[in-house]
Amino acid sequence: MHARKHADGERPDQTRAVLEGPEIGRALTRIAHEILERTKGGDDLTLLGIRTGGVPLARRLAERIERVENRSVPWGALDITMYRDDLRMAPARALGRTEIPAEGVDGRVVVLVDDVLFSGRTVRAALDALNDLGRPRAVQLAVLVDRGHRELPIRADYVGKNLPTSLRESVTVLQEEPHGRDAVLIGPAKPRPGAEPAATGPTASEVDR
Amino acid sequence: MRHLLSTGDLTRDEAVLILDTAKELAQVGERSVKKLPTLRGRTVVNLFYEDSTRTRISFEAAAKRMSADVINFSARGSSVAKGESLKDTALTLQAMGADGVVIRHSASGAARRLADWVDGAVVNAGDGTHEHPTQALLDAFTMRERMGRLEDLRVAVVGDIRHSRVARSNVLLLNTLGAEVTLVAPPTLLPVSVGTWPCSVSYDLDEVLPKSDVVMMLRVQAERMNASFFPSAREYSRRYGLDADRFARMAEHAIVMHPGPMIRGMEISAEVADSPRSTVVEQVTNGVSVRMAVLYLLLGGAMQTTGNQGETR
């Protein structure tokens, strides 16, 4: 989905990379350390990636924490489709898989992970979804890119890079898996959701709502 | 997809989308909070001209798990008993702002007629002897869960095909999804048009049984029978009932399905109905997931027409 959307959305002359491979790796390593510091060693830590862009990030963060602490960190995926506030603006979309690690979320410190923080509506939906799944002890938010333009009082606890953007721009995050390349790209804004079929629409994190 | 009237209207992709969505939504049934906010503010009317507690409750549970408001309308004791036509009832629902109507009617084709009269989505919950698409979808879902696939699955549908909307919906859907269906029934209980259905037909259960991966037993719908279709219940049971003997001759991996309600001892023996290879109870659970998926896909996104009030038609 990413790749296809990217292929028609990207015009080489207008799109530029603001973060490339190793920089993203370093940002993730820093966030992993920050998470360990903030959660005092990461007992009871669970990472939940918000579909779709957050999931590989959650996995990569879990791997890094594992490398540092020599202990596995449960991580999973959260699909927030059913909790979005813009469901009625587009045809019904297909659901993604929500995978909660066996430990569950009750009493744990859940770090929600997403690629781009924008309006904050995706995170709001994720908080609602989490609420229905159980009662975490605390919820924190980690994002690779914070592009600003918040529409809700939501702030990330861990940020890979603050990226001041214009509303006329779009931010696309590519990851080694599934895109074969790590990069954060800024390009011209894409059409609003509803103007195109949901399947090829922007991912949750970059939707301009 | 605007309405769900017949499984024959579904493309393979649409059918698979419904089954996949149902699989995700099945997770909701396992949680402590069995509720999603998705259809908040939407109204679903269960319009039941025929009694069917099971189907109505299943639709009601599905709609409520998605936070929709549910209005149950039963023809008995309502204005329908006073002589109101389906069209006038439809216009009343329209005026009340129903976003979705789930209809069960004794007349084949009632759901399709209703779809012409209301703006909201119409879900056929059984029309006469015609179709019962959500039942077929939940059957397919159950088969896929148990057997892991639908392609090339050999399915025997046994019993009162003539009066069964389940059979027709299943044949159309399973054919779309790549399974091979064989209908097994006495000639008197086969519909006249069966030659045009995409399936094979047999009168001999014992011949089909060992070759089947799925054996779906149907209820003998005595209430729809206006003539004598077989000599006696015992005779029927002897030739088309699934008893322990026949069960033993089925393939090791094969499962037994029944849409319910079962008449134990006639079409299926208690022993078989309660065996771990019988999916009767799962089918009920899966029914809620599948109906949630259908309601979500029909009502969850933007509606083609917005606003239900005041249009003269």
From TrEMBL, chain A:
A motif (PRPP-binding) lies at residues 110-122. Keywords: Glycosyltransferase, Transcription, Transcription regulation, Transferase. Transmembrane segments: none annotated. Coiled coil: none annotated. Residues 178-209 are annotated as: Disordered. Its EC number is 2.4.2.9. It holds the Pfam family Pribosyltran. Residues 195-209 have a biased composition (Low complexity). One of its GO terms (molecular function) is uracil phosphoribosyltransferase activity. The keyword Glycosyltransferase applies. InterPro entries: PRTase-like, PRTase_dom, PyrR, PyrR_bifunctional. The keyword Lyase does not apply. Regulates the transcription of the pyrimidine nucleotide (pyr) operon in response to exogenous pyrimidines. Also displays a weak uracil phosphoribosyltransferase activity which is not physiologically significant. HAMAP family: PyrR. PANTHER family: BIFUNCTIONAL PROTEIN PYRR (PTHR11608:SF0). This is Bifunctional protein PyrR. It comes from Thermobifida halotolerans.
UniProtKB/TrEMBL annotation, chain B:
Heterododecamer (2C3:3R2) of six catalytic PyrB chains organized as two trimers (C3), and six regulatory PyrI chains organized as three dimers (R2). This is Aspartate carbamoyltransferase. The keyword Transferase applies. It catalyses: carbamoyl phosphate + L-aspartate = N-carbamoyl-L-aspartate + phosphate + H(+). InterPro entries: Asp/Orn_carbamoyltranf_P-bd (IPR006132), Asp/Orn_carbamoylTrfase (IPR006130), Asp/Orn_carbamoylTrfase_sf (IPR036901), Asp_carbamoyltransf (IPR002082), Asp_carbamoyltransf_Asp/Orn-bd (IPR006131). The keyword Transferase applies. Catalyzes the condensation of carbamoyl phosphate and aspartate to form carbamoyl aspartate and inorganic phosphate, the committed step in the de novo pyrimidine nucleotide biosynthesis pathway. Belongs to the aspartate/ornithine carbamoyltransferase superfamily. ATCase family. Keywords: Pyrimidine biosynthesis, Transferase. Carbamoyl phosphate binds at residues 54-55, 104, 132, 135, 260-261.
